Amino acid sequence: MLNANLLDLISTIYDKFCNGFPATKRKTIKDIFYTRAETYKIAENKSTKVWHFSIPNFDNGKVVKLENTSEIKSNKKVVNSFSVLISKLNPKFKRIWAPNLDSYKKYKSVASPEFIQVTGSNAEQQAVAFAVLNSEDYSRFLISNATGSTNSRQRVKPQIANSYKIPFNTSEMKNLGVCLKPLLQQIQQNESENAHLQKLKETLLTKLF
Predict the structure, then answer these.
(1) Cα 92–chain centre separation
(2) What Å distances lie between residue 160 and 4, 6, 86, 92, 165, CA to CA?
(3) Is residue 165 part of a domain?
């Protein structure tokens, strides 16, 4: 419930930021943020532990799991610092992660290639990117541009997803980031605590049964 309220507040602030911008003062996501990610080759990193941001892990309580690459069958993408991950698979089901990598130390963080990665240069830009990708307008944009042979396997091409245009003004966007940063950081902290409690629960249940 707390995170839901924080998400509503982020959406309200971002909507207010967007209102009143003339259509000419807009740039695409790829013009503002970094949209590439290094490939993590499983064959070159055998029997290595990684923090795995996967679609199943998201759907199973949005809990990042520490997994061994021997159990991972396909190449992944290295998660950049200050990145936001949003699924290109079946966009009508919103899957969005904005990890604070300080919570995932010691091991490398990798993500399923089903996630599109949008990266800021600092925590403020990460918060802005999160607000953009979490917005209802962006969700509608992804859904309207999804293609696929069946409704259950719809995908959005990354180049299309990153062509979405948003209001842009350097100083105002910086102010927006300063405003949104503590809200996103609270969400990140709550998610990290939930993941810790989930792991503790699983450990205790294993010992009891």
Answers:
(1) 15
(2) 28, 28, 13, 16, 11
(3) yes
Whole-angstrom distance, CA of residue 50 vs CA of residue 108: 5
Number of structural domains (the chain) is: 1
Is the pLDDT confidence value at 151 over 90? no
Query: Could you count the other beta carbons within 10 Å of the beta carbon of residue 156?
Result: 23
DSSP character at residue 79: P
Judge whether 200 lies within some domain: no
Is residue 139 in some structural domain?
A: yes
Instruction: Quickly tell me which residue has 């209802």 as its tokens.
Output: 136
pLDDT at 209: 62
Confidence of residue 14 (pLDDT cuts 50, 70, 90): very high
Q: Output phi, psi for 87, to 5 deg.
A: -70, 135
Whichever domain contains 174, its CATH number is: 3.90.220.20
Residue 199 has pLDDT above 90, yes or no: no
In a domain, 207, yes or no: no
Query: Measured in whole angstroms, how far is the alpha carbon of residue 167 from the centre of its chain?
Result: 20
Residue numbers of the domain that contains 106? 2-193
79 phi/psi in degrees, rounded to 5: -80, 125
At 208, the pLDDT band (50, 70, 90 cuts) reads low
**Cα gap 7→80, rounded to integer Å:** 22
